[in-house]
Amino acid sequence: MAKSEHLTGRIWTKEFIILFLYHFILMFTMYLSLVTIGNYAIENFGASASTAGLVASIFIVGRAVSGFQVNRIGARKIMVIGSILFFATYLLYFVDGGLIFLIAVRFLNGFTTGVISTALNTLATISVPENRRGEGISYFSLSFVIGSAVGPFLGFLMLDYISFGAMQFYAMLAVLLVTLMLPMVKTNNIEKGHVPPKERFRMIDGDALPMGFSVLFMGLAYSAVLSFLNMYAVEVDLVTAAGFFFLVYSAVVMLTRPFTGKILDQKGANIVLYPAFIVTAVGFYILGNSSTGLVLLAAGALIGLGFGNFQSIAQTVSVNLAAKENVGLATSTYFIMLEVGLGFGPFVLGYLVPSLGYGGLYQGLVLSILLAMIIFYFVYGRHESSERNMKTSHK
């Protein structure tokens, strides 16, 4: 690994800040378009509402390809290549080629976004001291939380004043400004002069995959919140409160993640994840019984406290389970499994809505969360104390 400021023991180094800003702007841009492009397609091309479903799982391909290449040619080079391709595909948004062309552009831009995000997460992971990795990932993951909260908020706000094309232009300009700082990032996951070994293409890290199934079932549950909350809110007449749901969720995550990351580094994952599973399950049960706006927002706070912290801790566990040279592939594996749950969850769960209703679906997803907890117990939880003892004895 190349020498860098991570050797000083600090987390918020110059490189970490640049990586954080880039990932924040990237996620901001992603969610900005995610909540606005559906209306754009309907109004300009007469698309059906189901077209928005194509966007949900589009980033999986980028993750699948980039994880392996990060290990081969280095995360820094992948970040640069992905950034160039990002701008090349983003410019296609300004070409009026019809609905099929727009879908193709979304696919290509989603691919490049997944590539960059995997590289940035890998670089951020290795740029922090190994004994503060949990805290570092918790801080870095806030770039996603803030971007996914600010993007939709500003997206809806700006569409009242500017066109979709103008909004895309300003978003691209923001990405361009932050990429000008990339030459200052020197950290990499491979040594200079590294010759990529000849090996078979791998999309998944086998060591991180078992934990990935726990991530998948948690993502499956949360996908119902992303996809069905608005419809549920209309059904129970809580539309106004639902508008603040993700702001409450994000606020709780931002307030708690730095602390849970420190606890992970000092005490291990079990002390954080088991309560996170339980709190998330309680949040989903309350969400399914929401009768007032206050109850709905309380559910949002509980899900933020539970699932919001599960994400960063589970990513750290996935990376720690893998070999040091497979940090990129393990990071990619974590995101692939998460996005499979988030992307395909609505398609599967949609078949249950007619029989269970939205409230019943949220309550039923408590089972998915408990299954995720059981998987975690068998693949990591029950072994954690012995693994920590081994690491301590080797210090």
Report on the architecture of this protein.
The chain is mostly helical and 395 residues long. The protein has 2 domains: 5-184, Up-down Bundle (Growth Hormone, Chain: A), CATH 1.20.1250; 209-388, Growth Hormone, Chain: A. The chain is built from 17 helices and no strands. α6 packs antiparallel against α7. The two termini are 20 Å apart. Mean pLDDT is 83; it is low at 1-7.
Primary descriptors:
Growth Hormone, Chain: A; mainly alpha; 17 helices
How is the topology of this model organized?
Blueprint: H1 14-34, H2 37-45, H3 53-56, H4 60-73, H5 75-90, H6 99-127, H7 133-158, H8 164-179, H9 209-235, H10 239-242, H11 245-267, H12 270-288, H13 293-321, H14 327-349, H15 353-364, H16 366-379, H17 384-393
Quaternary structure state of the chains depicted: single chain
Strand percentage lies at under 5%
Q: Can you count the beta strands? A: 0
So, CATH architecture of the largest domain?
Up-down Bundle
Biggest sheet character: none
Radius of gyration: 20 Å
Unreliable stretches (pLDDT < 50, length at least 5) are 1-7
Shape: globular
Concise summary:
By secondary structure, the protein is mainly alpha-helical.
